[in-house]
Design brief:
Layout (H helix, E strand, L loop, with lengths): L1 E4 L5 H17 L10 H4 L4 E8 L2 E10 L4 E9 L8 H15 L4 E7 L5 H9 L3 E2 L12 E7 L1
Parallel strand pairs: 4-5
Antiparallel strand pairs: 1-2, 2-3, 3-4, 5-7, 6-7
Length: about 150
C-alpha cells in the first residue's frame, strides 16, 4: 500500500469523499455532522493523504492544523469493501508519524458516538487516543465522541 499526499483534484477522490459525506449524513443528524467537504479539505491548514493499493484508492485521512502544536485528525475513511483489513491502522500510523514530524505535540479528533463508529473508536484507543472534552470550537454533543493523543 502506498500512502501519499493528495491534491484532491481527481474525480476518484472526489467520489470517495462524497460517499463518506453521504454515509455520515445517513448515520448522523445534520447538526452533528463534522466531516469536511472537498473545498474545506483544500484549505491551507489541511494536509490530506490517500492510500492506494495496486492503483486503487482504498483509504484516506487528513490533519487540520489548529495551532502550532495541536492538530485535528479528519476524514479517516477506508473503502467499505476493505474494512478490517489493516488499511486504517497503516494510514493512522503514517498520519501520526507525519504529525510528529510536522511539530505537532497533540492530535485530537471527533468521531461519532453511535454503535456504527465503535470500530473507529476502538482503533483510536488502540493507538493511544483517550477521551477528552470538546476542543477547537466543538460543543458537547450526544452524537459525538472527542479523543486526543499526545505525540
Amino acid at each position: 500500500m502506498k500512502i501519499a499526499v493528495d491534491d484532491l483534484s481527481g474525480p476518484e477522490i472526489a467520489e470517495f469523499l462524497d460517499a463518506h459525506v453521504q454515509q455520515m449524513r445517513a448515520i448522523t443528524p445534520l447538526e452533528s455532522k463534522h466531516a469536511l467537504d472537498l473545498d474545506e479539505l483544500r484549505s491551507p491548514e489541511v494536509t490530506f493523504w490517500a492510500a492506494r493499493e495496486d492503483g486503487s484508492l482504498v483509504g484516506c485521512g487528513a490533519v487540520k492544523r489548529l495551532d502550532a502544536s495541536h492538530a485535528e485528525l479528519k476524514s479517516m475513511r477506508t473503502d467499505p469493501r476493505r474494512t478490517r483489513s489493516g488499511i486504517a491502522s497503516r494510514l493512522l500510523e503514517h498520519i501520526l508519524a507525519e504529525a510528529g514530524r510536522r511539530g505537532f505535540t497533540r492530535l485530537s479528533l471527533e468521531t461519532g458516538s453511535a454503535e456504527f463508529f465503535l470500530p473507529a473508536r476502538k482503533l483510536y484507543e488502540k493507538f493511544g487516543f483517550v477521551h477528552c472534552a470538546p476542543f477547537a470550537g466543538y460543543r458537547s454533543d450526544p452524537n459525538s465522541t472527542f479523543m486526543t493523543k499526545h505525540l
